[in-house]
Each structure stands twice: as C-alpha cells, then as structure tokens.
Amino acid sequence: MKNNLFININLTESNVDFQSYNYWFSLIDYFITSANFIEFHVWNEEVETIEELSLKTNLEKIDLHPMKMVCFQGDINKKIINFILQESLSQNGEIKWFSLFLKYNGNCFFESSHWGSEINIENPSEKEIIMFKKFMPKNAIFHHFK
C-alpha cells in the first residue's frame, strides 16, 4: 500500500478562516514545481470557468460525458503556474476548480478535490507532513495511510 496523506477541510464551518485558501495556495506553490503535467476537472454547468480555461490556457479540453464534467489537461509551463497562483479564486472568493491533479511522468502525486476541501498527497515525508499541518485550517482532519 502506498504512503498517502489525505486531508479534509470542512468548508461549511463558520468558525474557521478558510476563505483566503492560504493553505491551498501554499500546497500548490510547494508541489507545482515538481509536476510536469496538470489536469483540471470542472462541472459542465460551470460555464465561466470552462470558458476561462479555454481562453487563458493551452490545455487540451476533453469532455467526460458520463460524469458531466470537462477535463483540461496538459504540460505545465510558467503561464499555467502563474494562472493557477493568481487566478484560482472566483469572484466569490472560492476555488474555481472542482478537482486539480498534479502529475509527474504520468504519476499523480497531488490531488485537490471538492473545490479544495479534500487533498490527497502521495508519499509525503514525515517532515513534509509536519510542515503541512502548520498551515492547514484548524478544522483540517488528517488521515495518514502507510
């Protein structure tokens, strides 16, 4: 079994300051430079987000018909990195992407799902886990599977 860290953040709790999503940007900033491929999954009804990804990235668009989703995927470059770090929040201050996957040579090592409320990290070191716990919201629940 793989060494995985799963983190769940309850975004509906009003007593937790998650709205800035600093934890999410910290994780993306930490992991994106290790990736060479990215995937975004967006629900079909999120038309503005689909249009934005089509216009502002050079990623391939794939319809995921059975799931009623659209996937944008492709190689990571500086333009994509800047786009994610600067334009991932909607006008409401929420993460735009239902899911985001970072991969290296076909292996997915970082996944952000459910608009940043579920994070899966493959094979983190103990030192990394300690570091991640320091900047996650207070209500984050950690599951470490070895």
Description:
There is one protein chain. With about 150 residues, the chain is α+β, with helices and mostly antiparallel strands. It is about 25% helix and about 30% strand. The chain contains four helices and eight strands; from the N terminus they run βαβαββαβββαβ. An eight-stranded antiparallel β-sheet has the order 3-4-2-5-6-7-1-8, covered by helices on one side. A hairpin with a 4-residue loop joins strand 3 and strand 4. It is globular, with a radius of gyration of 15 Å.
SSE map:
Elements: E1 4-8, H1 22-31, E2 37-43, H2 47-56, E3 60-64, E4 69-75, H3 78-87, E5 99-104, E6 107-113, E7 118-122, H4 126-135, E8 141-145
Antiparallel strand pairs: 1-7, 1-8, 2-4, 2-5, 3-4, 5-6, 6-7
